[in-house]
Amino acid sequence: MYPSHHAPLAHLKGARRRHGAVVALDGVDLELHRGQVLALLGANGAGKTTAISLLLGLLQPDAGEARLFGRPPQDLSARQGIGVMLQAGAIADMLAVGELLDLTRSYYPAPRSVADCVAIAGLDGLLNRRYGKLSGGQQRRVQFALAICGAPRVLFLDEPTTGLDIEARQGLWRGLRTLVAEGTSVLLTTHYLEEAEALADGVVVLANGRVVASGSLDEVRARVDQRRIRCSTTVDAAEVAQWPRVRSAQRDGGRLEVIADVAEDVVRRLLAADPVLSGLDVSRAGLAEAFLEITRDTSLEEAA
Ligand code: ATP
Question: CB within 6 Å of ligand 1 — which residues?
Answer without folding.
Answer: 19-20, 22, 24, 42, 44-50
